[in-house]
Write a structure and sequence with these properties.
Layout: H1 3-13, H2 20-26, H3 32-44, E1 48-50, E2 56-58, E3 64-71, E4 77-81, E5 93-95, E6 108-117, E7 123-132, E8 137-145, E9 148-153, E10 161-163, E11 175-183, E12 192-201, H4 205-215, H5 224-231, H6 239-242, E13 246-247, E14 255-257, E15 266-272, E16 278-285, H7 296-304, E17 308-310, E18 313-315, H8 320-326, E19 334-344, E20 350-361, E21 365-367, H9 368-375, H10 379-384, H11 386-408, E22 419-423, E23 429-434, H12 439-461, E24 468-470, H13 476-486, H14 502-513, H15 520-527, E25 532-534, H16 558-571, H17 578-614, E26 621-630, E27 633-638, E28 643-647, E29 656-659, E30 664-667, E31 673-674, E32 679-687, E33 694-698
Parallel strand pairs: 10-12, 13-20, 14-21, 28-33
Antiparallel strand pairs: 1-2, 3-4, 3-6, 4-5, 6-7, 8-9, 8-11, 9-10, 11-12, 15-16, 16-19, 17-18, 19-20, 22-23, 24-25, 26-27, 26-32, 27-28, 29-30, 30-31, 32-33
């Protein structure tokens, strides 16, 4: 009996409590050692529990649940219960003081439910066992008290960690350090640890950046064997490597990227066909030719999962010898590529697709700015790039047709403004603005989407293993929250019909033309599921695509690299093995986790840069709108994307109470309310480039303006903080915006 089959059998058997001898009699053909190991695994995972009478049963029978412990900066905490995929998320459990059972923030725990409820009606519980620790490393300030050294973690959710003086390494008191936890503390001993890295002087932005990267498992330096393998790769394509490939060096192929992009992993081409159709070519750097399975490069790329971008800097997935060298589709040089060649009619219908390893020679390194200007009629640029103008215009028309078809099938046009932070040569922020998207950016997006869909359809219809990009249907409960926000603006959203995306498209269209509604696309985004990677082809809800994967960025995303390998194996007619399926499953899980870590890094580091830039405006007033409401205060967002907190104690003129169910802050006496989307005038009172915290106060004690939507909105649940759209950037083309006043959003 396989392990997973045995464990499933045990879970069914232990719906009622049984002693070990009773379990053995029920499973006489199972070896004693095999049975013991299976039970130990289920106990360790918290799926079953043993009571004081040595009877085993599923944990639910004993009133126990598993989940993730969420510490607070006060004595109590919460546990987010585990949920099966597709099931609604239950409410968090309240863990009262002294009931955490030694759990730290992020640990997976087993909780015994009690019959009590806290003051807000939440179920209570007690942690009875820590099933697994979230991670053994934290960052904090190295301090000294008498002869004793200790690390004070940045977050007060964690306790002090004692350090023996022999375990300090080169760190000095006052430095920010990374410490590995060797003992989590008990009734006799305090938590202890060993300093693993000195991140710089505590209280500096540089140390904070290093800490954020370290906390998310992002490391700048590559292992020596990885660098050695990368450096051994020739930086020119030898003639032998071109043999047997589709030779496209005589075709008009070029790249389009940001102004300051350093690596170019995709190029495009477009040729008219005799039947009136187009042959659209999307040519992707053939990273799989250089990064082979089980090599040091492959192991490190798997571990990193993705490149990480923050203002003026990149932590690449692959060493620069590849990402900026031989795998970058630089103009005028031969490069190995994997090409998707798709026959399209003028209305964007795909009639066929061919995939082949190729060799290309990019004819130009175009930028989004230049292409936008050419398409807008810039005479000088149209003369300079005359050989490309006709092709660019044809590309633009095809891209518009592809976009139209995508919207017609129900795709969501979630163009959430993305904040671009400009930095100078020293890495200091010089401006904040929303990144604009012109025709060229949309052109590349549509062509990449077309290639991704074509490859996914090819692999799925042949039942070949690969890594898909999936986006599942949203939770109806979250859609109910959004529906209540949208109702005052005249929208009638049916949360029970998530597949009817036309109702959401109507909201997005309306929000484009009404400044009062500009918060709605962000609220809709928060209501949707998070996209992830999977071995199964589950479709992409937001794109309304039945088949979808990531094929177009193997320099900076590991799942794209796996997709290239599996596609080539399919084209070769090779037989797929169980090892291929396992590799895809593991790559999907790892890539999803690393993408989340990269997003965390980029979001948190961006906050530091935004705070550093805004610091010069302390004391000034700005127009803003409420972007979130919590018990501790109101979040306000400026027109340049900067978000800060108005602490509840600064809301003068009344006693304000937080309504979690309706997500409002309401004055007890005046009845005035703060709700998401409400305009407000604020004054900047603090900005820290060390923590990323920005604090506002109501300007001159001003309260919300009366009579403006959505004051009568009564949403069902609080929305989470963190309102950034997911983004994966190949380059950062920031336009520095200098001057005393912060930049404002351009209306579109």
């Amino acid at each position: 009996m396989q392990n997973n089959a045995l464990e499933s059998t045990l879970l069914s058997l232990l719906a009622q409590p049984l002693r070990m001898d009773e379990i053995r009699r029920a499973l006489p053909e199972t070896g004693k050692q095999e049975l013991k190991q299976a039970i130990d695994r289920l106990l360790a995972d918290g799926l079953i529990t043993k009571n004081k009478k040595n009877r085993f049963a599923v944990s639910a029978h004993y009133g126990c649940v598993t989940g993730t412990y969420l510490a607070t900066e006060r004595a109590f905490g919460f546990v987010a219960p585990d949920t099966a995929e597709g099931n609604p998320k239950p409410d968090d459990l309240f863990i009262p003081p002294n009931a955490a059972g030694g759990a730290w923030h992020g640990d997976r725990v087993l909780v015994k439910l009690s019959e009590r409820k806290n003051g807000r009606g939440r179920s209570e519980g007690t942690v009875i066992r820590v099933l697994s620790r979230a991670g053994g490393e934290l960052t904090g300030a190295l301090c000294r008290r008498g002869n004793q050294y200790y690390v004070q973690p940045v977050s007060k959710k964690y306790p002090e960690i004692m350090i023996d003086r022999h375990d300090l390494g080169p760190a000095q008191v006052g430095d920010r350090v990374a410490v590995s936890v060797t003992h989590y503390g008990d009734d006799r001993l305090a938590p202890r640890g060993v300093v693993q890295a000195d991140l710089g002087e505590d209280g500096t932005m540089q140390a904070s950046i290093a800490a954020i990267l370290r906390e998310n498992g992002v490391y700048e330096e590559f292992p020596a064997d990885v660098l050695a393998q990368a450096d051994a790769i020739p930086q020119e394509v030898p003639a032998a490597d071109c043999a047997g490939r589709l030779d496209l060096r005589d075709r008009l192929v070029f790249t389009i990227d940001g102004d300051d992009a350093k690596d170019f992993d995709d190029a495009v081409s477009l040729e008219p066909l005799e039947n009136g159709h187009y042959l659209l070519g999307v040519h992707i750097a053939d990273v799989s030719h250089y990064v082979t399975p089980a090599s040091p490069l492959d192991g490190e790329a798997f571990r990193r999962g993705t490149s990480v971008y923050y203002p003026g800097h990149v932590v690449p997935m692959l060493p620069f010898a590849l990402s900026h060298g031989i795998c970058s589709l630089n103009p005028g040089v031969d490069r190995l590529a994997f090409s998707a060649l798709m026959e399209m009619d003028r209305d964007g219908r795909r009639y066929g697709a061919k995939f082949a390893k190729s060799v290309i020679r990019s004819g130009a390194r175009m930028t989004y700015r230049k292409v936008n200007d050419i398409l807008d009629g810039d005479a000088a640029l149209r003369t300079e790039y005359a050989p490309l103008v006709e092709t660019l215009e044809q590309m633009n028309r095809l891209a518009q047709a592809l976009y139209k078809r995508r919207i017609e099938r129900g795709a969501l046009e979630l163009e959430i403004p993305e904040t671009a932070i400009a930095v100078d040569a020293d890495g200091q922020p010089t401006g904040i603005a929303f990144r604009s998207r012109g025709d060229s950016e949309k052109l590349i997006e549509e062509f990449m989407l077309a290639a991704n869909e074509a490859v996914a359809e090819f692999m799925c219809k042949r039942d070949n293993p690969t890594v898909y990009r999936v986006h599942e249907n949203p939770d109806p409960d979250k859609l109910r929250v959004f529906a209540q926000f949208a109702r005052p603006f005249g929208y009638r959203i049916d949360p029970g019909k998530p597949q009817d995306t036309a109702q959401f498209q109507a909201v997005l269209r309306g929000a484009k033309n009404d400044p009062r509604q500009r918060i709605l696309p962000m609220l809709l985004l928060r209501s949707l599921a998070r996209a992830r990677y999977a071995e199964e082809c589950l479709g992409h809800y937001g794109l309304k695509a039945k088949f979808y994967l990531h094929f177009t960025s193997p320099i900076r995303r590991y799942p794209d690299l796996v997709a290239h390998r599996m596609l080539q194996k399919a084209l070769d007619g090779a037989e797929f093995t169980n090892a291929d399926h396992t590799a895809c499953e593991e790559a999907a899980s790892q890539s999803t986790n690393r993408e989340q870590a990269a997003d965390n890094c980029e979001r948190d580091i961006d906050k530091l840069f935004i705070a550093a830039y805004m610091k010069q405006f302390i004391g000034e007033e700005f127009d803003a709108e409420v972007s979130g409401v919590q018990a501790f205060g109101v979040f306000a967002a400026l027109e340049n994307g900067c978000e800060g907190l108005i602490r509840v104690e600064l809301l003068a003129g009344d006693y304000y109470q937080y309504d979690e169910q309706h997500m409002t802050m309401q004055g007890r006496h005046t009845g005035k309310r703060f709700t998401v989307g409400m305009p407000i005038r604020v004054r900047l009172i603090a900005a820290s480039e060390v923590t990323g915290q920005i604090d506002f106060a109501p300007a001159d004690g001003t309260l919300p303006q009366a009579g403006l939507p959505p004051q009568n909105v009564e949403p069902a649940d609080a929305l989470p903080r963190g309102n950034r759209a997911q983004r994966r950037r190949a380059g950062r083309g920031h336009a520095a915006r200098k001057g005393k006043k912060p930049p404002t959003r351009k209306r579109r």
